[in-house]
Design a protein that fits this description.
The protein is built from three helices and three strands; from the N terminus they run βααββα. The model has no long low-confidence stretch (mean pLDDT about 90). By secondary structure, it is mainly alpha-helical.
Length: about 100
């Protein structure tokens, strides 16, 4: 979601493209996650809309918050350290 506002179906499509189809989100899984991230302040619903001819009034658009960005960066650092440790122990390919 980072970078631009997205609606649910666009998020599902983006995840599929970014993972070469390896990860397929169901609508139920996605919307439960969206609800949880809204409650935690990681994302927010935006009132900004695309041009009417490119929009469906039923869609809700979401964007990442400053808190969400900070949490995502912290998680990326944590995962990087985890992979580094796994490589050092020979559990993951690549340099230690």
């Amino acid at each position: 979601m980072a970078g631009e506002d997205r609606h649910g179906y666009a998020i599902i499509q983006d995840v599929a493209v970014r993972t070469d189809g390896e990860l397929k989100l169901s609508a139920g899984t996605l919307y439960r996650s969206i609800q949880r991230m809204l409650e935690q302040g990681l994302i927010e619903e935006t009132r900004d809309r695309p041009a009417p001819e490119e929009d469906d009034e039923r869609r809700r658009y979401y964007r990442i918050t400053a808190l969400g960005t900070a949490v995502a960066k912290a998680e990326a650092r944590r995962l990087t350290q985890l992979v580094r440790m796994a490589r050092a122990k020979g559990f993951a390919p690549g340099r230690a």
